[in-house]
Amino acid sequence: MAVGSILLDFLVTKEWRRVRIVQKYGGTSVGSIERIEAVADRVAKTCSAGHQCVVVVSAMGHATDELVQLARGIDPVPEPREMDALLSTGEQVSAALLAMALHKRGWPGRSFTGWQAGIVTEQVHGSARIEDVKTEALRKSLDAGEIPVVTGFQGISGETVTTLGRGGSDTTAVAVAAALHADLCEIYTDVDGVYTTDPRVVANARKLEQISYDEMLEMANLGAQVLHPRAVENAKQFGVNLVVRSSFSNEEGTLVAESAGYEQHEVVTGIAFEREVARIAVLGIPRAQHGLATVFGYLAQRGVNVDVIVQSLVQAETVDVSFTVKEDDTQRTLRVLEELRGQLSYREIVAEQGLAKVSIVGAGMISNPGVAARMFSVLADGEISIKMVSTSEIKVSCIVESQELDRAVQQLHGAFLTENLGESFTQTTSSVAKHAY
Ligand code: ADP
Ligand code: ASP
Ligand code: MG
After folding, report:
1. Mutate to test the pocket of ligand 2, among 35, 166, 176, 188 (most ligand atoms within 8 A of CB)
2. Atom 4 in ligand 2: residue holding the nearest Cα
3. 32 C-alpha to center of ligand 3: Å?
4. Which residue blocks in 124-180 are alpha helix, DSSP H?
5. Which domains does the chain have, with CATH numbers?
6. Of 186, 225, 232, best ligand 1 pocket probe by most atoms within 8 Å of the beta carbon
7. What is this structure's pTM?
8. In the list 171, 325, 391, 415, which could disulfide-bond 378, CB 3.0-4.6 Å?
9. Per-residue exposure over 21-49, b if at least 16 CB sit within 10 Å of its own CB, e if not
10. What angle do CA 218, 219, 224 make, to 5 degrees?
11. Ligand located closest to 67 CA
């Protein structure tokens, strides 16, 4: 059994031991004054049990979206430095309010902005990586018996405020937990754990008791919004015991920890998806000029994030290639490709929007060729056409039409994860999975 679940048992059974816990509360969990009061009650309860708490908060409800809209009202592409200065204020509101709510209950809450908490990032706006957490201020606060309440999603680079990317408060929590050697990092959200897929799309999705870092990382990278990918990456790197649970109930949640061993691997653990994907095809790229390397080198240089790549037609002189980007990035990508025409004389570009990506994830699918075939046949049975495919050791992704996404997720969930079918599939392939390890 993983160490994390023993710790979790400690807390659940209320066996006394002083544990240092980082608790992160997401937007819905601090979405109103009533919710902030409820969070203060939960933090106070944890501290009353003798545990030491550091809290990390997101902005209230849709506050970040509203700030984005305000900025766009001035400039559709706002100055990145000022955008981060603006977006970081959302979390400052909730941190200060929660600290007040703790004070009202007789607990010395103390709010910290990212820079006050010593969260140092690289010099990138909008998606900065945390480079260091200088823990002095937080340790001093804990030593003084206070409850630090840290703004998620932000840090400092030199003198400039930076933000970590949407959903980044999870990453703040894990970074703080790692730096303070916390025993546990609890991510409180509006669902009571990590499910086999988004329970908003599949009503009978199952809550997972435990998931490995690798599978969770794959799920998060493939669109499962419940955890920020870098939070999982950091948790794996620093061995942080991570629990995802609901701030609306006392349900146990899901433990994200090191894999418990191959016996427990399902062939498919979960299904993740991403809406709003666009496909860009670049046709007639001259092979003689290292065409593909030039195209993707140029896109990378200009900061365009490319996902699935398929080389479709190779002829004597030219190649065709398609790749996906986030739909929001379509216009920018087309502009960058137009600029490239000066260097590389490809024939034409075709863009297609209104697509989505659905992925099945599971550590047990290593060396298991049957899984991809089964995925394709489930989608074909549902008359869902597959536009592109991409695979890795533990996932298979298909690009489909957006309007067919929910149905694709539901049918794949039915086939791979709804009890009986899922189990028999797991059994027939588990010996393959065992050999693969
Ligand atoms: P928070 O504001 O607390 O950070 P998020 O909205 O970022 O919450 O993440 C929680 C949401 O993630 C859930 O409401 C759910 O719709 C979505 N979600 C997507 N995939 C999953 C999954 N596999 N398990 C649980 N929730 C998921
Ligand atoms: N407030 C930020 C967002 O909405 C960060 C977070 O909630 O994790 O993306
Ligand atoms: Mg989130």
Report:
1. 166
2. 64
3. 17
4. 136-143, 169-179
5. 17-263 (3.40.1160.10), 266-408 (3.30.2130.10)
6. 225
7. 0.89
8. 415
9. bbbbbbbbbbbeeebbebbbebbbebbee
10. 145
11. 2
Regions of the chain where pLDDT drops below 70:
1-17, 260-265, 367, 419-437
CA of 265 to the centre of ligand 3 (A): 26
Q: What pLDDT, on the 0 to 100 scale, is given for residue 434?
A: 29
Pocket of ligand 2 (CB under 6 A): 26-27, 58-59, 64, 90, 152-153, 166-169
Say which residue the tokens 């499910």 belong to: 195
- For a mutational test of ligand 1's pocket, the pick from 24, 56, 189, 232, i.e. the residue with the most ligand atoms closer than 8 A to its C-beta, is 189
d(CA 219, CA 271): 7
Which CA distances in Å does 341 have to 285, 294, 315, 405? Answer: 11, 11, 20, 34
What confidence tens digit (pLDDT) does each residue in 239-270 have? 999 999 999 999 999 999 987 654 456 789 99
Tokens of residue 110, six digits:
């103390």
Strand, coil or helix: what is 272? strand
Distance in angstroms (rounded) separating the CA atoms of residues 62 and 87: 12
Tokens of 16: 């006394």
Indicate if ligand 1 lies below 6 Å from the C-beta of 28: yes
